[in-house]
Amino acid sequence: MLGELDRDEYGFLKHRSQWSEQVAEALALEDGLALSTAHWEIIRFMQGYYDEYNHQPNARLFGQAIKKSLGADKGSSICLYKLFPEGPLKYANKYAGLPIPPSCI
Fold this sequence. Notes:
CATH superfamily: DsrC protein, C-terminal domain
């Protein structure tokens, strides 16, 4: 499945139109992560944020935006790093089918 996708050098989809829940699951598994309900909440948040503002929040605003929308506990750095240990902003965007954030290159 992943071999059929057009991805950049970091493994992010080049075209969001190729995204599906199955693709997100496969991308996460490729990175050694199984997506839970908590992951999906952040992934859906990122897609909604991107659709509304046409860009991702920067690293500083990422947690604040989640806190405002989903609650303080879900936007805490501790919670976000438990979900996405290698980098919450980067991997939430990757699994959401969004471009790599400029701050993560």
